[in-house]
Amino acid sequence: MTKKPVSKPAVTDAAETAAETVVPDNVTEFPGFSAQKFEIPDQVREIAEQGVEQAKHTYETFKSAAEEATDMMEDAYENARKGFVDLNLKAIENAQSNTDRVFAFAKQFVTAKSISDAVELQTKFAREQFETFTSQAKDMQELATKVASESSAPVKDIWEKTQEKMKVA
User: Fold this and answer.
1) 78 pLDDT above the threshold of 70
2) Half-sphere exposure (CA, 13 Å, Cβ side) for 10?
3) Residue 97: pLDDT band by 50, 70, 90 thresholds?
4) Would the pLDDT of 7 be above 60?
5) Phi and psi torsions of 11, nearest 5°
6) What is the mean pLDDT of residues 129-147?
7) Contact at 8 Å (CB) between 85 and 160?
8) CA-based radius of gyration for the chain
9) Can you tell me the distance from the alpha carbon of 87 to that of 151, in angstroms, rounded to the nearest whole number?
10) Tens-digit pLDDT profile for residues 151-164
11) What would the pLDDT profile of 10-50 be if each residue is shown by its tens digit?
């Protein structure tokens, strides 16, 4: 590479006139073009600044939506956990109640004086157990529906709020 002075138009700044630029041999010089004088127009600069501001705003919107969604998901998981605890406690309560009834029936059954008394006790117990199981199943279904509803409501809210925020962004 050899040093060639770059021809420049008349310049009023003394420092610019003294500067020499190293130009490779295989590069064509453009005497009317100087990178040192190239300025970005104010309109382009404003558009770029607006783009940066819009990107920052969009990022903040997405970040805020993500943080809010995370908080709501934590609430949803906590609601689900509490609901499942309640559901399990109800199942244990039902099992204990059913076990107590079976033992009470067994005591009555072994004290039956005749086969007809035993059959009558068995029929009565079966009918009561069927009614009890039906009632317990209904209660469990209602509780499970409540748990599912309470657990999914925050997730639905998260989804809707996130959709709205993304439309705005």
Assistant:
1) yes
2) 0
3) very high
4) no
5) -125, 145
6) 95
7) no
8) 41
9) 13
10) 888 778 777 877 77
11) 445 444 544 455 555 666 665 655 555 567 788 888 898 89
Per-residue burial over 54-77, b if 16 or more Cβ lie within 10 Å, else e, is: eeeeeeeeeeebeeebeebeebbe
- Rounded to 10 deg, the angle between the 42-110 and 115-168 helix axes is 180
Angstrom distance (rounded) from CA 33 to CA 118: 113
CA 42 from chain centre, in angstroms, equals 42
Query: Residue 153 contacts by C-beta under 8 Å, 6 or more apart in sequence?
Result: 76
Q: How far is CA 42 from CA 11, 37, 45, 51, 52, in A?
A: 23, 15, 5, 14, 15
3-state DSSP call for residue 22? strand
What's this model's pTM, rounded to 2 decimal places?
Answer: 0.56
> Residue 92's CB: how many other CB atoms inside 10 A?
10
CB 25 within 8 A of CB 17: no
Distance linking the first and last C-alpha atoms of the chain: 53
3-state helix, strand, coil in the chain (%, to 5): 80, 0, 20
> What would the DSSP string read from start to end of 92-144?
HHHHHHHHHHHHHHHHHHHT-SSHHHHHHHHHHHHHHHHHHHHHHHHHHHHHH
Q: Which residues pair with 22 in a beta bridge?
A: 3
